[in-house]
Structure prediction request, 191 residues.
Amino acid sequence: MKLVEFVWLPINIKLLLLLLTIFLFHTFQYYQYRVYKFGGITMHRTTKNTITGQEITKPNPVNEEVLFNGGVMITETDKNSIITYANRKFREMTGYTKEELVGSPHNINRHPDMPKAAFKEMWEIIRSGEYWEGYVKNMRSDGKYYWVIVSIKAKFNENNKITGYIAGRKVPNREELTKIEAQYKAMKAAE
Prediction:
């Protein structure tokens, strides 16, 4: 009987180690695809579409700018920032399909270089029903980035309650953009 226990002990330990290794590998792989480190801050790499249930993996940032050449780029969201409408120009610029965008959080295209403080101020202003405008660096589905000036205003129902937001974009002033980039880098460093 002791011989049988001795024989099975190494096999059980090997099996346990194998299962533990597989578990740890899959756990690491899961979190590797869920989050990544960028500039010392952990960013979530996936977002979930509330309509389709699809999980969309955000790309790693690529240090290559795609210039926004103008045109009408519009999105609408509900009051929780879930996209309810994205026009063709926005879809073309971001590289996401209509099915990926509608139902997804608007931060699907947020670039990790953007300071949190810029969005904190934006939310304080638009939640109060006021108009907000500012420079935003966004990330496309291929990881490349683009700069825009975003204008956001609240949408109201018949009872004057905010039901969502509408945002339009225009081409940024390149001279002003140099100052904004420096300001955002300083804000990011202070986080």
About this structure: The mean pLDDT is 84. The longest strand covers residues 145-156.
